[in-house]
Amino acid sequence: MDTAHVTQLDDLRTECLHVRSGQRFTTDAPVDNKGKGSAFSPTDLLATSLATCMITTMDIVARANGFILAGTEARVIKHMASDPRRVQRVEVHLTMDARLNSAQRGLMEDTAHGCPVARSLSPELVQEVTFTYR
User: Confidence class of residue 97 from pLDDT cuts 50, 70 and 90?
Assistant: First the structure.
């Protein structure tokens, strides 16, 4: 089964369809690359997918180990490079529940660093991850 269908729209935009759920979203080229910046750019999605994968994978592992993550949040900052144009560095700042003990914190941090998206990205892309416990 297909994962997604992507259709080119006008003005450097695309419409993306998630085949299984029917959900849709639009992308736009960023302002610094001839777009309007009216939606996530492809590189914004790359950086954001790293954070969403970390949170999702941590939640799966927490549940498998008998505890619940609630209200975990991520702030994502993408840094671009040129020649060639690419994402050079992604900062993911995770904020998590402080009620986790040190073993649970270590498990969550290891899980975040080892999520499928983190493992799929080029080693040249710098992944800076910080953990803050409320």
Answer: confident
At 17 the three-state DSSP class reads: strand
For the chain, first and last CA: distance in Å? 41
The answer to whether 62 and 104 have CB atoms below 8 angstroms apart is yes
Q: Rounded CA gap, 8 and 86, in Å?
A: 21
Residue 57's H or E segment, with its range, is: helix 42-64
> Distance of CA 34 to CAs 37, 38, 40, 94, Å?
9, 12, 14, 31
Q: Rounded to whole angstroms, how far apart are CA atoms 73 and 69?
A: 10
pLDDT at 81: 96
